[in-house]
Each structure stands twice: as structure tokens, then as C-alpha cells.
Design brief:
Elements: H1 71-86, H2 101-110, E1 119-126, E2 132-141, E3 144-155, E4 158-166
Antiparallel strand pairs: 1-2, 2-3, 3-4
Length: about 170
Amino acid sequence: MTTSHKTTMQLISSTEDPALWSHPVLDLFAPPTQVRVEQSTKLYLVPSTFGEELEADEMPLPTSATALPELHAWTMKFIVSVVEVWAGRRQPAQLISWCHRVIYMELLRASGSQKEIGKIKSIHQSEPLDGICESTALIRYGERLRAVVIRFEGVDGRWLCTALKMI
């Protein structure tokens, strides 16, 4: 008596879960696996000084974003405060530790320059390097939309505004 044994071969891919394969396909044609290489963030090394000549021990020290307050909440607090200063409803001195002194002097000059408090419509943020944030806020004044561009740098353990401009 001869018994016939049927042997079925099943192709198992080394790159995919075998359960996903319902028909035989050569491993050669399997989709390539994507290898994600984790990149370390690059901390910027030269904080803005606006042309000031500082001694080596007076230079501001860059700080990583991981050691700073949460960025979106910080930006919201800052832009709300700035809009209130521009409307003359908040004292600019409340922002002195949040701004570089050049930006603070510009904020002083613009204090009370708007007739009303603007309404913040949206905030868009980007972090080109670790410890740097560039934001754009859209603010509605009546029927008009204005854009405010802001740059924060992580300096000496805090976010510091180094650029502020309403367009």
C-alpha cells in the first residue's frame, strides 16, 4: 500500500508578518522595510545679542527646549499679554523678563498703539533647532486680520522673545 503524502509549501516572508500573506510571493518582491533613524536635536549655540559686546562670563547660555516650559502654552500667554500691552490694558513692565531688552524697548514704544484688544485667531509654530521657536499669530482687529511674528530662544533656563513684529 502506498500512501501519498501531500506536502504543501508555504512561503514565509522575513520582513512581514506571515499572517498578512494570503498567497505565495517571493520574499524578493516584499515591500522594503523602512528604517527610522532617530536623530538627536541640534541645540543652537549662539543666542541673539543684537550687536552687544559681552564678556565671556556674561554671554547668555542656550537652553534645550526639553528644560523649558511647554511651548504652546508659553506662546499663548505671551501673545495675549502683548496684545493687551498694544491696547494699553497691561503694563509693559510685566513682560520685561520675557523679552530681550531691545524687544522690550520696541514694546514700550508700541504700548497703547491699538484702539482695541485684538482677538487671537490662530498660532502656528515651528522649531527649526532645539531651543528656538518661530511663531506666527493671526489677530483680528475689527474686520482686519494682522499677523504677528515672534521668535523665542531658550536662554538661561527660560524662553526669551528675540523678535516681535506685527505685519
